[in-house]
Amino acid sequence: MQSLHTLQNLINEAIEEKRFNEKPAELYDPINYIMSLGGKRMRPVFLLMACDLFGGSVLSALDAAVGIEMFHNFTLMHDDIMDKAPIRRGKETVHVKWNENVAILSGDIMFVEAYKLMIKVEDNILRDVLKVFGDTAASVCQGQQIDMNYEQTDEVSVDEYLEMIRLKTAVLLAGALEIGSLIGNAGHENAQTMYQFGENLGIAFQLQDDILDVYGDPEKFGKQVGGDILSNKKTFLLIKALEDAGELDNEELSYWINAENPEPQTKIQSVTSIYNRLGIRQLAEQEMNRHAEKALQYLEALPVDADKKQILRRFAEDLLVREN
Amino acid sequence: MQSLHTLQNLINEAIEEKRFNEKPAELYDPINYIMSLGGKRMRPVFLLMACDLFGGSVLSALDAAVGIEMFHNFTLMHDDIMDKAPIRRGKETVHVKWNENVAILSGDIMFVEAYKLMIKVEDNILRDVLKVFGDTAASVCQGQQIDMNYEQTDEVSVDEYLEMIRLKTAVLLAGALEIGSLIGNAGHENAQTMYQFGENLGIAFQLQDDILDVYGDPEKFGKQVGGDILSNKKTFLLIKALEDAGELDNEELSYWINAENPEPQTKIQSVTSIYNRLGIRQLAEQEMNRHAEKALQYLEALPVDADKKQILRRFAEDLLVREN
What we know:
By secondary structure, the first copy, chain A, is mostly helical. Chain A has 16 helices and 2 strands.
C-alpha cells in the first residue's frame, strides 16, 4: 500500500503538471489559479487509495483523480458565484478576482476538462466510470440547488438536511471511491460497497464541518468561527436546536435569526449558549458518529486484507477528528 | 434516406419525451422550458443525416442527437447570462424568468445530461465520440470567451473574427456531423471529412447570420433588423467596413459607434448606407460562398452515392438562403 504522503505528493505533482497554457488566457488562468489554492485534496486521495486497495496501479488512476479534483473545483467556482462568496481558501474567489462571466465560463471549461481526464480510463470500465461520474455530477448540482432553496424556507427537517448534504457533499466522495475501485478492477459489487463507505463518510465529514464552524479552535479553523451562526445557515446544529428548543429558547433563537445588524460576537455567543443548553453539539456528534460507524462497517465488509484497509481507515478517522 | 421532415419529427418527439420530472423543480423546469422553445434543431438534424448517410440507423443516433441539442441549449443558457440577453426565441431568457443562479446551475446540469445522452453510443465508438464531444465543447467555450474579449477591443481582424466564429459556432455543427458519422460507422476518415464539411458550413451559416441582421426582411427575420449595428457588434460586416473605409466613411462610422443614445433608425440607416457604399454585403456574401463551396467540396469527396448526399446538400443550401 502507498502511504498517504506518497499519494498526496502524487496528486499535487499531477495537478501541478496539468497547468493550462491554452488561449484565451481569461478562460484558463482562473483554472490554474483555483487549482493552485490547495485544499485537502481528499477526493483524489480517496480515489487513489481505493484503486490501491484492490491492487490497481495508482499511476493508472492519476488522471481520474485529477479529474475528480477538477470537477470539485468547478463546482466551487460556480457555487462561489451563486453564494456571492468573496473568499475561498483565504484568497479572492474567481468571480471577484476576474468577474462573474469569467467564473461561469472558466467553470464550464473545467467541467469539460474533468470529463476529458475521466475518459482516459481503460476501455473495459469506461462506460461504468462515466456513469458513476455523470450520476455524481447530477447529484452535486441537485444538492446545491436544494441548499439554496433551504435559504428561502424556515421548514427544513433534519432528514431533509441530511439528504441535502448527502447530495451536495457525500456523493462526490462516494463517486471518487467507486471510480478508484473500478480502476483498481474491484468489480461492481466491491466498488458499490466503497460508494456506500464514501457516502456515509461524506455525511459524517459535513457534520463535522458544521460542528467545527461553531466549536472549532479559532487559531486552527482557518475560517471565522461562528460564520454559520452569523449567516443563519441552516446547519444540522440550527435545525436541531429549532426542533428541540422549548418556548423560551425558541424565542431567543428567533430573535437572533431576525436581528438586523446584531453585534457579531454577541450573536455568536448567545446562539452558542442556546446550543450548549440543548446539548446540540453532543447530538451532532452522535449523528456524525452514527454515519462514521456505518461507513467503517462497509469498509470492514470488503473482502480485502484488514491491514490494507488500515490507511483508508486512518485517513477517514483523521478527517473526522480534524480541527480545520 | 430519411426525409428532412421525418428527421425533424423524430428529433422533436425525442426532445419532447426527454422532459425532466426530477427534483428540485428549480433545476429541471428551466431545462424543459428552454428545450421547448424550438429553434431550427439543425445540429441534431445534421447528426442524424450524417448517420443515415453512411447507412446507420437514425434511431441509434437519436440519444446523441438530443445530447447535441441539450449541449447547444446549455451554452445558450450560460451565454444569455453573460450577454445579459433578455429574450431568446421570442421568450424571456432563463436568467430573467427565474434568476442568474438558476440559469448557472440548470445549465451545469444540462451539460451533465448531454454527456449522459452521449455515452449511450455503442462501446466500439464510445471513446471516439466522447473525444469529439469534449474537444467540441472546449472550442465552444473558447469561442464565447474570445467573442466577449472582442467587445473590449477595437482591433479585430477579419481572420481573427473568422477564427472566433469557427470556434463559437462552426465547430459544434462539425462535431455533430462527425459524431453522427461515427455512429453510422463511417470510419475515422469519412467522419473527419464530415467534420470539415460542417466546419465550413458553420462559418458560412454565421456569415449569413451577420448579413441577415442588416439586410434581412423585417417581417421574416424574427429579431430586430439592425440589432448588431445598434450594439456595435463586431461582425464580419463592421470589421470589413472599418478595414475598407476611406477617411470620410471611417469618420462617420466612428461617429455612430461612439454616439451616445443615437436615434436607432437613423443609426441603422446611416451605417447601412456606409456598408452599401463600400459593397460590404457583396464582400460578406463572397466570403460566405467561399466557405459554402469549400463545405460542398468536402461533401463531394465522400465515397457515398451522390443521390444519398442530396438531402444533406439541400438542407445545407436551405440554411444559406434562409430569411431567418
